[in-house]
Amino acid sequence: VAILSQGNLICCGSSLFLKRLSGGTYFLTVEINAGTSPDTIQCVVEEIFSSVYVRSSSSAQIVLELEASDMELFEKLCLCLDEMKKANEIASYGISAPTMEEVFLKLSSSSH
User: Fold this and answer.
1) Are strands 8-12 and 52-57 parallel, antiparallel or unpaired?
2) pLDDT tens digits, residue range 53-96?
3) Which of 8, 41, 45, 103 suits 32 as a labelling partner, its CA being 20 to 30 A distant?
4) What pTM does this model have?
């Protein structure tokens, strides 16, 4: 995969390489049940991860950006979220890697 911006080659490599190059972040999406605040979810995650960025937040869902360098903490995070799901505080959660479109946008904007 090669990424071009304004006619210039920014970088090229496998999709995994480019995702790591762009910052190595993961996205945590949590569907929140009524009675639970997005701030509560954010506080729980911040107790585990040193670097947390709120991507979006509403009364029903919060999306947090987490550093891939903290990969060993994901198990602890999942255990905490599983407990919150059992307590009916959250409906569901998922962890995803950035899409190639997000990688392209990040790398092309950082080249200017």
Assistant:
1) unpaired
2) 999 999 999 999 998 778 889 999 999 999 999 999 999 999 99
3) 103
4) 0.77
